[in-house]
Inverse folding.
């Protein structure tokens, strides 16, 4: 069954959508889309590391993204540069360093387009294992930190005052972000991972009235985007990442009509 | 060790400095079970900062905070709910602790907003939102309740009711309350201990003591002092009339 590359891509994509749905909601709520970009851009460095030292790509990307996240947190404490400038600095410099390193690795043939935009041909059976076990772990941990994370998203001081330890929840969430980027990089591509986090959550916001429902609809939106996107990628021979994100965009536009309807109903 | 097991939180000479500027310094106060301690003072005098020190929100403080409870309910001065987060009053009630539906309904009824249970938090008016905030803080039956201007934006009759409710909660739950308020009339009726802040503790004691204090008069004016003394007279009168002394 896993012999067919398309079936593999579909199973991988479905696994990814289950994880990006809930995490994407927190990215939208906590305004972390730039942060997601920074981590995913730094993933290129992780990929080059994987090739150089013959490591698993997901694990290597996870490690490098976590390190970048730590550096970012340190820089935020120690400099007066505003947050978005710091994020831009790290995002572009890590992308640049990654590309420079690739230039030196002349003995390996890189599919740069595949790295940047995803490639459904590249998903192996091993990747499926990484995506589904990694994804399950991410979801279990997210479930465990759900209450402190949501409470501190609403109000940090309230969560701190009532003993929920929001700083720990935030640190764990940062690691989960690095992990989700690591498992989705092959499929979605490092330039488009943030889209996979944000657009399904944005679709869900338009049709939800509680945090739990938004998470549920975000997962459903992601699943539909993956399935639609991968079929059209196969049909039109386009890269998998852009196809999935374009499908998500179409769903988002449809969800806007739903808002208009509900506003009309209220009036 | 805690020598008096009624003490919930104790500040010893506590202060907090942010980028070389002292927000508040040298505050000592104690909140005990069943007692209401009120912080008063002008804007920027460090009332909210003191509350946050007591709550453990600020970490790098001068002095010490001893806290003997983890069951805390907090009504912050300001909460803004981002549009991107869809959240109903019901979800908000469950934000920091999982509590039973009956406890949620009871708390929302006490503050008069049970009809808003399934409304989106973002659609509430300022006064309604404050009532929900108070309901959330009391629904978890805390031992220590910290209320930072809890009735802001609430209509006048609602204000009186909510203060009565706060007093009632302090009695029925036997919880200690740290209250920040601007309304001297209201505050003094229920308060056991008043701390008047102006970057430091300018005076503290029972409402009547504070009212007589010269520094307090300088800070709030002669009129504010009269409010307190007038109230205190009324209070004495009621007590002697009924021939019953109930210690607040």
């Amino acid at each position: 069954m896993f012999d067919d590359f398309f079936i593999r891509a579909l199973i991988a994509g479905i696994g990814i959508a289950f994880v990006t749905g809930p995490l994407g909601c927190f990215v939208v709520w906590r305004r972390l889309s730039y942060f997601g970009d920074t981590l995913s851009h730094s993933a290129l460095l992780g990929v080059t590391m994987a090739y150089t030292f013959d490591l698993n790509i997901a694990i290597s990307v996870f490690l490098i993204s976590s390190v970048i996240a730590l550096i970012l947190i340190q820089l935020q404490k120690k400099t007066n540069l505003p947050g978005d400038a710091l994020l831009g600095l790290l995002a572009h410099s890590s992308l640049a360093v990654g590309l420079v390193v690739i230039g030196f690795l002349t003995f390996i043939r890189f599919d740069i387009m595949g790295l940047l935009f995803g490639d459904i041909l590249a998903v192996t059976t091993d990747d499926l294992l990484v995506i589904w076990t990694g994804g399950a772990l991410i979801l279990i941990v997210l479930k465990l930190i759900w209450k402190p994370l949501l409470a501190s998203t609403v109000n940090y001081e309230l969560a701190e005052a009532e003993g929920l330890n929001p700083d720990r929840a935030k640190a764990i969430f940062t690691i989960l972000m690095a992990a989700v980027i690591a498992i989705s990089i092959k499929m979605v591509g490092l330039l488009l991972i943030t889209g996979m986090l944000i657009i399904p959550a944005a679709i869900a916001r338009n049709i939800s009235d509680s945090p739990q429902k938004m998470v549920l609809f975000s997962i459903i939106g992601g699943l539909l985007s993956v399935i639609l996107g991968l079929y059209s990628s196969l049909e039109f021979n386009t890269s998998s990442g852009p196809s999935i994100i374009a499908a998500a965009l179409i769903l988002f536009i449809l969800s806007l009509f739903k808002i208009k309807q509900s506003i009309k109903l209220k009036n | 060790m805690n020598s008096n097991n009624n003490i919930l939180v104790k500040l010893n000479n506590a202060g907090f400095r942010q980028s070389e500027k002292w927000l508040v310094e040298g505050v000592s106060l104690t909140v005990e079970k069943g007692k209401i301690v009120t912080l008063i003072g002008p804007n920027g005098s460090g009332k909210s900062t003191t509350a946050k020190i007591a709550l453990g929100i600020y970490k790098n403080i001068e002095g010490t905070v001893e806290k003997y409870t983890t069951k805390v309910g907090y009504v912050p001065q300001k909460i803004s709910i981002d549009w991107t987060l869809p959240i109903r009053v019901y979800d908000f009630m469950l934000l920091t602790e999982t509590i039973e539906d009956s406890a949620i309904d009871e708390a929302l009824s006490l503050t008069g907003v049970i009809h808003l249970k399934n409304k989106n938090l973002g659609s509430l008016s300022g006064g309604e939102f404050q009532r929900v905030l108070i309901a959330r803080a009391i629904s978890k039956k805390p031992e220590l309740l910290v209320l930072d201007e809890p009735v802001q934006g609430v209509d006048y009759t609602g204000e009186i009711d909510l203060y009565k409710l706060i007093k009632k909660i302090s009695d029925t739950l036997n919880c200690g309350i740290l209250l920040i308020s601007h309304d001297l009339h209201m505050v003094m009726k229920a308060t056991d201990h008043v701390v008047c802040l102006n970057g430091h503790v300018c005076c503290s004691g029972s409402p009547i003591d504070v009212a007589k204090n010269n520094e307090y008069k300088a800070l709030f004016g002669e009129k504010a002092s009269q409010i307190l003394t007038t109230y205190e007279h009324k209070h004495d009168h009621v007590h002697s009339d009924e021939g019953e002394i109930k210690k607040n």
